[in-house]
Amino acid sequence: MRLILVIALALGLSACATAQRLSAANDVHALLVSIRDNDRTVFDAHVDRPALKAEIESRLVDRTHEMKGKDSWKALGAMLAPALADIAGDALVQPRVFRQVAEYYGYKSDTPLPGAIAIAGSLKPLKDGRVCATKSKNGPCMLVFTQTQGVWKLSGFEGDISMLRIKL
C-alpha cells in the first residue's frame, strides 16, 4: 500500500512540474517572439528588469573581487559596480541584446520558433518554484524565469555575462 502511495505522489509531483513547465513555455515563447521581432513592449512585459539589474550588479561586484592586482583597483571596481550595473541593466536588457542568447540556443532570426511543448522540454523546474532554460536536457541553466502575477518573466541570466553585448 505504501508503494502505491509513493508512486501516486511521485506521479502527482511530476504532473505539477510538467504543468509548470508548460505554463512557463507559453511566456518563454512570447519572449522569443519579442526578441526575434525586436518588440520592446512585449519583451518588457516578460522581463523582470529589477531582478536582472540586481543580478548583473552582483556579478560585476564578484568579478571585481576576483580581479588580480592592487586592492585599490578592486575597491574602485566595487564602488563603481552599482552604477555600472544600473547603466548595464538599461543598456543590456533589451531584445536585440538577448537575440545573441537566443542564437546560442539555436533560434536564429531565420529559424522558425518551436511551439510551447518543445520549449517546455528545455525547461527545468527549480526547487524554489522558478524554471530555467537549458540548451540540453541535463545542461546547466542559463535563463531563469519567475512567475509574477500570472506571467513567467525572465528574472535571471546565469550564462557568461560576456554574451550580453550590444551589436552596433
Radius of gyration: 18 Å
Class from secondary-structure proportions: alpha+beta
N-to-C terminal Cα separation, in Å? 64 Å
H/E element order: HHHHHHEEEE
- Number of discrete helical segments: 6
In total, the number of strands is 4
Low-pLDDT residue intervals, each spanning 5 or more residues: 1-16
Query: Mean pLDDT, as a whole number?
Result: 79
| Percent helix range | 55-70%
Strand content: 5-15%
Q: Main beta sheet: strand number and arrangement?
A: 4 strands, antiparallel
The gross shape turns out to be globular
Strand order of the largest sheet: 1-2-3-4
Q: Topology, please?
A:
Blueprint (H helix, E strand, L loop, with lengths): L1 H36 L2 H6 L3 H18 L4 H22 L2 H10 L11 H6 L1 E3 L5 E4 L6 E8 L2 E7 L11
Antiparallel strand pairs: 1-2, 2-3, 3-4
Question: What this model shows, in words?
Answer:
The radius of gyration is 18 Å and the shape is globular. A hairpin with a 5-residue loop joins strand 1 (123-125) and strand 2 (131-134). The protein has a four-stranded antiparallel sheet with strand order 1-2-3-4. It contains six helices and four strands. The chain has helices at residues 2-37, 40-45, 49-66, 71-92, 95-104, 116-121; strands at 123-125, 131-134, 141-148, 151-157. The chain starts with a helix and ends in an 11-residue tail after the last strand. The chain is of the alpha+beta class.
